[in-house]
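Worked problem 6 (solution included).
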Amino acid sequence: MPSGAGIRSWAMRGGVLAFALAALAPAGCGRRSAVPVTVVGLTCATCGMEVRDPRYAAARIGSGKVRPFDSIECALRDSNTAATLYLSDYSSGTLHRGDSLVVVRAPGAIPSPMGAGLAAFLDKGRAERIAVARGGTVLPANRLGAAPEGTR
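Solution. The predicted structure is:
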């Protein structure tokens, strides 16, 4: 599998199906393994902006298709809720199943691309420390629901 800048061209040439199938494979032993690719450099399926910061990136994967997003907010606005949601761990910039992360919401203190101040974390302890330091709240990613009010 290609790495770095080659991922974008690989995905555009048909690697998306192979990526989606690899991402849907079971992680085994309850481990929280990362999805083996990034969506940085692709266009957000909701707002049309380029995905630039891997800390805020997200994707929905289903039916052999990957829909990239520049932020958690955009992923929540996506109408394809049947596809599995993947969020980026803020600390590492790698995508993981959304149900394995917690989200910090700190509007104005976390500069997420669409302005809701959302960042996802695999490490709940780290998320709690960030929330306290930035005046935010922590909630499980699967409890987010729709995009927060007041986001672009």
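Discussion: The helical segments are 6-24, 72-77, 124-134.
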